[in-house]
Amino acid sequence: GQGDAAPRRGSASRRRGSAFTLVELLVVMAIIGLLAGTTLTAVSQVRHAARRAEARDYNDQIVSALKSFLADYRRFPDLTVTTLNTDLMLVLSGQNTNSNTKALRYMEFSSAEWANGEVRDPWGRAYRVAIDNGRGGNDDTKGYDSIVHPQDYSPVRQYAVSWSWGRDGVNATTDDVKSW
């Protein structure tokens, strides 16, 4: 009988040792929270960098298409454009044969871009476009005289330029993504 009445040694300490204390759980949760916060910040930065790279690449495609048009016709499309809109899309896709008489395709556009009536940057705003169309009496193939940055009026020294207002959506800030 005496062995039955006495509590077993070590059974209570074994139970307490196998469970987590509240402090241990809070420490683990804090570490997971810090890791999640760090990861989300890194993912956000990578997304922003990817959007900037996408905008930069599309700017280059726009300028390349316009320069190819210039090489083929020795002039730019006779359009007054400030964005890559339907008028310019029709010319660059070869569908406007008044300006693009050979119906050459310089760019392809998605059905969503056609539906929007303009090509939009990764942040949902239209790409900005400026071309030296020689309307000031200058030959398009000799100079880049008429293109200036629309906000600060600094000379750009290019035949054709394209840019995005970037994530902040404000023109002429350090966030702009430019082809020059």
Key attributes of the depicted protein:
3 strands; elongated; mainly alpha
List the helices and strands and how they pair.
Blueprint: H1 2-5, H2 11-18, H3 22-73, H4 86-92, H5 111-116, E1 128-131, E2 160-164, E3 177-178
Antiparallel strand pairs: 1-2, 2-3
The tally of strands reads: 3
Q: Rg, please?
A: 31 Å
Question: Largest sheet, order of strands side by side?
Answer: 1-2-3
- Biggest sheet features: 3 strands, antiparallel
Pick out the low-confidence regions.
136-146
- What is the succession of H and E elements? HHHHHEEE
* Structural class based on helices, strands and sheet pairing: mainly alpha
Query: Mean pLDDT across all residues, rounded?
Result: 82
Description:
The chain has 180 residues and is mainly alpha-helical. The chain is 43% helix and 6% strand. It has helices at residues 2-5, 11-18, 22-73, 86-92, 111-116; strands at 128-131, 160-164, 177-178. The protein has a three-stranded antiparallel beta sheet. The model is unreliable at 136-146 (pLDDT under 50).
Quick overview:
The protein contains five helices and three strands.
